[in-house]
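ok here's Ribosomal protein S18 acetylase RimI-like enzyme, seq below lol
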Amino acid sequence: MVSDVMIVPITPDDWDEYRTLRLEMLGDTPIAYLETREHALGLNDEAWKFRAWRANGPTTLGLAGVDASGNTPVWVGTMSAYLSSPGVAHLVSVYLNAGYRGSDVADRMLDRVVEWAQDRPDVAVLKLLVHEDNARAIAFYERQGFTRTGHSEPYPLNLERSEIEMSMNV
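and the structure came out like this:
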């Protein structure tokens, strides 16, 4: 049940849940991330612990959507942001399990990211890069108020494809 999905910060103790969800997202939508599933499968526990540890810090925000409707909470989505340069925060690692797409979970995660960016007096813009072939993600971002900046860059895992930049003022 979608109403049972909580939006929570990722903590260092969440490394195993983070790993499980990251592997799911890399398998589900490989063009959306700058890492292959094969690479992620090769990481040891210490690397996953480090990733979970760095998810929330002075310049980062890492969120998880956790479905608490069953006996065991299940991670169903994630969204992160980081301060990338003066005045700019970047949205990254956006994923929602297929069974939760079309619900309000991604909207609620993005609301938290926008609030986080707005709480920083030096941030005026939230930017992201999205693969040109990821129509579902582009449509979500446009519904949320992001616009294309006109900038694009080669997609690092396939230089024949591009990522387009989108932004919103916060």
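fwiw The two ends are 31 Å apart (CA to CA). kinda neat tbh
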